Amino acid sequence: MKSDNPRILVTGGAGFIGSNYARMILRSLTSCELVILDKFTYSGSKLTLVDIADDPRVTIVEGDICDVSAVNRALEGCDAVVNFAAETHVDRSLIDPASFIHTNVHGTWVLLEAVRQHYEVRFVQVSTDEVYGAVLSGQSVETDLIHPRNPYSASKAGAEMMAIAYAESHGVDVVITRGSNTYGPYQYPEKFIPLMITNVIEGRTIPVYGDGLQVRHWIHADDHARAIHTALLHGKSGEIYNAGSDDERTNISVARAVVDLLGASDDLIEHVTDRPGHDRRYALSSDKLRSLGWEPSWTFDEGIKQTVDWYRENSDWWRAVRDASFEEYYQSNYGGRTAMSPSDTDQE
Q1: Structural domain that includes position 77
Q2: How many domains does the chain have?
Q3: Taking the model in full, what pTM does it have?
């Protein structure tokens, strides 16, 4: 990739991590060009790009990664592709797995095929720690076998396999990153942390699955964006890089942190029946990526406070992006779940 004035295609750049990545690039590189290709679905809003849309370094292309013509139009003149475009919510994948297969697997194939036929670029496939499946002890390393256990993680694993196949069969310059649970500004409020924040602000209960003792490593979106860019610049072709922090938290402890920061009562936390295939724990070793010079800069305590403050100060954004379909999804996913009694959660 050219280092003096790179032109980077950011697919899904109106989404959560993609938009944070775009802002990070614009802050850190004075000479660069970004092409943002986004379908602008429910979780990728034009409102998320308002602050960068008029930057002369940014070109926004409305289109689907499954659309060959849109992909070729966006790829013209680019030096690299960073593929954030994906359906990402596990709960939604249990309701509508077909859309996850279509976007995450077929869409990744369309991008790779366009690169193979017409463009000599580096291709970064942004993936997830969820492809490893539940990790009850220790930390996942890149050579571990993968064991996805829900339609979302299975579709992301399929996208990875497609990328690896194009690297092996066609010599496409592919790098894969697997990120841990990410939080920060501009995350659509169906996800765990922004859902909790916005529900508390509105005086609604916080639904926590099961006993809430599921464990995750949490990484701030700024740190995740820098991790992906480190892999783009310095990663070895054909390799996979984990991107996580060592900040390990249970879901219930995260819920209590949010409630405390907003000055609310723990009574808002409502344990509900768990979802199918809910992995108990994820944990990543990021030693391989750290060897390339990357380190996370946010602690969870710092990052969650900044995130809570951001949602509190930007209610116009999240109220605007939550359209009528959000409430319909919310009721379909949480409305039928049974509240659990204290005796069901006494493992805490």
Answers
A1: 7-247+279-330
A2: 1
A3: 0.95
